[in-house]
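Reviewers of the previous submission asked for a worked example of the structure-prediction workflow described in the proposal, so we include one complete record here. The input consisted solely of the amino acid sequence. No template or homolog information was supplied to the procedure at any stage.
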Amino acid sequence: MRKTVVAGQFYPSDPKELEAMISKQLAKADVGALGSCKAFVAPHAGYTYSGSVAGYTYAALQQAHAISKFNTFVVIGPNHTGYGSPVAVSLEDWDTPLGTVKNDRELSETIASMPDISADEIAHSLEHSVEVQLPFIQKAIGQVNCVFICMGDQSYQSSLALTNAIIGAAKMRKRGVTVIASSDFNHYESADVAKKKDIPAIESLFNLDAETFHEKILKSADSACGYGPITVAALFARRMGAKTGTLLKYANSGDVTNDYERVVAYASIVFS
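From that input alone, the workflow returned the following structure tokens.
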């Protein structure tokens, strides 16, 4: 069992308080009629700062799941700690204040058996980027099966290899899967600078151009921390028949702190 690491820090450790916070954020997110989305992007900062943006992603996920009835949710986050394998798949169930999130062990093991991907718990041991998505999934959908992946290697080739592994494994194991990419956007510059870096890259996702998105992030020195997982989500969505990416919400930490000179930016994006 992978125990919680950031409960009480990034989000409330009290189950009732946590449920109430997420319910409020979901209720405030007006996403309209999106149809059958194939993949999603959500932020992973503390809920006080990014939870309202994440609410849009998970309101859209609720809608998509009602249509598609996904078997397994593949949650991919960046590796902030530097520990573990370059692309690490957990084989454990994960604990949260809202209960246990079950690992789709068969699918996880199949993905981990692919080239350049490993079964590894060390990469996940202190990493928050996957964990903070799970209470939202639990509250939005209920009891689910997940695959938990941490990307230290966020190169385009690594993203392409992981996409192929997920699609190949899902086909082999007869799973209907969706991908949730965990990422914040530009860090610790002014809100204006963040927007100038983030939005052109995000616009590349509107036509699911994952390669251009990846290139723009690197070229502009955008410090979006989960650009690899986002690249996987866009590549996966295109392969699953998605035609467009939609930016549901873009905001930054200054909207909470009123300090717009040094912000972290957040985006909710869906691919349908």
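The CA atoms of residues 7 and 13 lie 5 Å apart. We consider this example representative of the routine output the project will generate in years two and three.
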